[in-house]
Amino acid sequence: MDAERGFWLQLMLLAMVASIWLSLKLLTTYRLYQQHHARSPRPSKTNMNAPAAQPVPGAGIALAQPPDLNTTVHTLTQNAPSARYRFPLGWSCVAGRSALSQAAFVGYINHILLTAQSDGGKDTWAIGALLSLSALHSARELQLCVIDGKGLDFVGWRGLPHAWRLALTPDEIAPAMRALSAERERRRRILSAAGVSKWEAYRGGDLPLLVTYVSELALLQDATSAKDLERWLNSELAAGRAFGMRYIVATQTASNFATRWRSQISLYVDGFQPSQSQDTPNTGLRTNEIVRSSAVPPSDLPAPPTGAGIFCIVHGRDAVNIRAPLIDDDERFRWLEALRAASGASAHPDAQEVLPTPLESVANSVLNVPGSGGAPLVSEDERQAIIAAAQLEPSRRKVCQRVFNTTGGRAWEKVKQVCDEAGVLLGEGRLVTVE
Ligand SMILES: Nc1ncnc2c1ncn2[C@@H]1O[C@H](COP(=O)(O)OP(=O)(O)OP(=O)(O)O)[C@@H](O)[C@H]1O
Q1: Beta-carbon count within 10 A of 102 CB
Q2: Which UniProt keywords apply (predicted)?
Q3: Distance of alpha carbon 58 from its chain centroid, rounded?
Q4: 175 near 167, Cβ under 8 Å?
Q5: Tens of pLDDT along 176-206?
Q6: Of 123, 175, 217, 394, whose CB has the highest number of CB atoms within 10 Å?
Q7: Is 271 helix (H, G, I), strand (E, B) or coil?
């Protein structure tokens, strides 16, 4: 009996020693884990670049000194190597480092409302987005329409292969609006004849994404009337999306305009506003909802000139403060020249046949954005050839052989990237298509 009790006592003692040892081990491991994570904070989802970043006082996490447009486009391509029609939103300061926020037109962004008081940096933000899109897409993939009429900001864009139409004086505005409606109808006919329900499914290769920038909505009202403008916005914004047309509509505040078309807006970019009453019309959220998202609402942002280029970006219920890269006249001129040179437009300004603008050539030779590293850059022609071959071949290797006459290196990466994006040939040997 005593021997049995002794045995159980010994066993309990052993169990106690083992549990103390285990607890100490767990504690040490947890401390090590904590120390490691204190030394190396997790990178933010949006990626980072220069160290020792500082936010603008009173502007949430908006970065005080954002990198230039070159670095911005470089970071954009690193963050989202394969996303099409991506563009930068602006820079923030996350855990002491600069972080770029970005979005993409095809996928989840429909139309954009861009607002801020005078000199808030609206044109500069839009120019950054349009130049980035142009650098990353050929004129066959992307066309731009600019309706300005308030200054000289877009004069240098004339003759650019990406420029579908520029309305830069008040008398050019109404015809440009009619041309956009006619283009929408033309696209409707093409898509309907091709038997597809939306632009994204069309494989004809002759309908580039058409992005229209309206630099001041009030000028469109002056060129037409409040009623006509409302009708035009309602139909163009509601229907344009399905036909590969996107709008960036800028104005000082949207509160002076009818509300229906605003339901088509999926991204709000709002800079300084003088009163809380302006927050909701320009962001779609109430002031306290923006604060709950840990962002500074437009009515609390610093006013220009200190606050120029600082915006509150709202998508759904998420809000973030950013500062856009400042693009001065010289830089803009260099970019436009680079885009012209890369597409051969400077040699043939009136050329009908527009050459594509592959990112590699713009990036490597002219704009100094490294093209190596990250995912391969696939031209629209290559993309279409890969998709077509994927309908015929049973495996990605065979697709690669058919399109590039090789099965390795960058060619293989391109095939992999396009197949992943399109959701085809996910299993070797059979054709799988995902919605
Ligand atoms: N990202 C930025 N960072 C710093 N300063 C900026 C930035 N963007 C613009 N600015 C400054 O603000 C000035 C006005 O910019 P911009 O013309 O883009 O504003 P806007 O909102 O379009 O003005 P307006 O409505 O009066 O035409 C620029 O000349 C520049 O000095």
Answers
A1: 19
A2: ATP-binding, Membrane, Nucleotide-binding, Transmembrane, Transmembrane helix
A3: 26
A4: yes
A5: 999 999 999 999 999 999 999 889 999 998 9
A6: 217
A7: coil
